[in-house]
Structure formats: structure tokens, C-alpha cells
Amino acid sequence: MKRSILGLMYLIQGMRKAGVAVDQKLQSIGLRADALDPSSIIHPSLEWDVLKVIGQDVAPEKGLFIGQHYALAGYGPLLMLLVTSDNVRIALEQGILYQSLTHLTGALSLKYTEHKVALCYEPHDLNSDLGLLRAQCEISGTYKFIQDLYKMMGLSIPQIHIDLPFSQPENQESLKNYYDYYGLELGFGSKCAEFWFDNAVLNVPIPSADKMTFKIYESKCIAELERLKVDQQVPLLVQRVQNYLELQQGVMPTMAETAQALQIPERTLRHQLQQLQSSYKQIREKLIKDKALRLIEYKEYSIEMIAELLGYSEPAAFNHAFKRWFGYSPRQYFK
Q1: Is the pTM of this model over 0.90?
Q2: Which residues make beta-bridge pairs with 120?
Q3: Which string of DSSP letters, residue by residue, matches 78-132?
Q4: Which of 67, 92, 99, 182 has CB atoms 3.0–4.6 Å from 137's, for a disulfide?
Q5: In this predicted model, what pLDDT tens digit does every residue of 21-31 receive, in sequence order?
Q6: Distance from C-alpha of 273 to C-alpha of 186, rounded to nearest angstrom
Q7: Virtual CA dihedral for 73, 78, 83, 88, nearest 10 degrees?
Q8: Per-residue pLDDT tens for 164-178?
Q9: pLDDT digits (tens, 9 = 90+) for 97-115
Q10: Domains and CATH numbers, the chain
């Protein structure tokens, strides 16, 4: 299952604001943050490869600040599904059902006691510094998401007790940072992140509830899950190259940059693709063709803008390539 690239984009944005020299790190693997395509999707293995580069030498505790820059806007149809739910219980259940559409890499669940309910988040990895960094980011981002969602729904934020799956910091300044962000109702050392509410919160009606709109966005969420499914018929290496190249608008990374990002020697990458009856050039051209059709069908961009987004220096070059691929010009396709 792939994921929206927006999670990675918010992570990059948060790192910038937290003082991490993320742009220089991205350039080392041929990526530019301002050229990332927000409509693209990314395989978790590639996202992890990028994280290994940009997260190198970043203290896990920085994730507390990085996660505060995640935003509601990237949740698309899932966000609308949540805010048109009848009540908070249904919104929570839908969030868990469609958690693959969130920016989280771990697992969401609900835990009930007699008087309390917890939204639980179990990170994928708590045993490495990089895993801890990502967990800190995503837990911090989840808390911000809860607050922002309540504000968007026009509801008062309920009292929340939070348990974190990290050791309590010994440094008093670091500890103060946690209390300043999460509040005084805070514990450390749990098995997963737990956001505890009173059970009564579940039955609170959502003012923006709308059954018809809910159904519309439910179908959009189902369609988006289908889009994220990995094509099992495509060889894994070809998928990895496709995934990397799909990330950016404009000029595509070179084969050398792609090999570096995938942590494969360039000569080895070329040879392995040849064995699969493929090549970097073929994969690159197919991706540009697919993006060209997608952008044209979107009907929001001029031919000149599409040419620029695909990395062509002049619209004429794009027109020539399009006619070679499909037998007619982009303007004829528009009609």
C-alpha cells in the first residue's frame, strides 16, 4: 500500500522550521522540496529511504516540534468524511477504518474502559533513533490533528490525558517542552501513544454532520484506497524507480541521482533493469506520459504550464513528444 506524499512534505516543512538543513540533504539525492508533486503517492520503503537521508543526525526529541507543522489540508476526502460524521464516535471509527489515508505509518486503534476511551497510536519502530524521530513527529502531529479537527468541527476541545511511549526526559528544559505542548495531563513510558477522553465525548454530535456529504466522501475514500494499492505485477525494482521519479514536478532526477537515492550503485541499477527487460529511460518516459495525461484530464492547467511541470524547457518540445506518444497534439486531446 502506497501513501500520499503529503506526509513526507509536511515532515520536510517541519524539519525546516525546526532548524534542520533538510534542503541540502534532499539535494544529495536529487530531490527539491519545492518541486515535489503534492498529488503523487509514495511507497513506504522509498519514504523510509528518504527519511534515512533527511533524518540523519536529527535528535528524536526534535520530532516534538516537527510534528506541530503537520496540517489538516493534506487529508482531503478523509477530512471531509470526519467532519460530516454524525458524532465523535463515528468520526473516530472512520479515522481508524481509513487510517491508510492518514500521514501515519503506525497503527491506530481504540481502547475502552468503564468511563474512558483512548485513541491509541502504535508506532512502527521505537528501537532506533530514526524510528523514534518519526514516532515523535507523528504523535505530536496527531495531537495537533485532534485539536485542529475539533476547531474545524466547531466543538470545544475536551480534556485529554496523554501517555507517551517514550522515557521521561531527564533534562528539565526538554521535559518542560513536552508539558508546554501536551499539557500537564501527561505520562511517559506506555507501550503506545494513548489519548484518553471521557466516554461521554463519543456521543457529542458534530455540528457539520451531513449524511449525503458523508456518503460522497466515503466513496472517495474507498476510491483513494484503490489508487494506493501496489501493482503486484510490476517488478519491485521497477516500482522503486517509478516511485522515486513520480515524486517531483519539473526536471526529473538523473539516473545517477536515482541510484543514489535508492542506495544502489548506478551500474548495478542499469544491469538489474536490463535483466527485467526495462531501463531508466523507459520508466522515465512512461511516467511522463502518464503524468501528461493526468494533468491534461484535470483541465486546470494550460499546455504551457503542463510542459513546465513535466520539465520541458519549451511547450513545442512537449507538443512534439506528446504527438510521438499518442499520435495527436495535446490541444487535439483537449478537444
Answers
A1: no
A2: 109, 194
A3: HHHHHHTSSBHHHHHHHHHHTGGGSS-SSEEEEEE-SSEEEEEEE-S--SSHHHH
A4: 67
A5: 999 898 888 88
A6: 51
A7: -120
A8: 999 999 999 999 999
A9: 999 998 899 999 999 999 9
A10: 59-226 (no CATH), 236-334 (1.10.10.60)
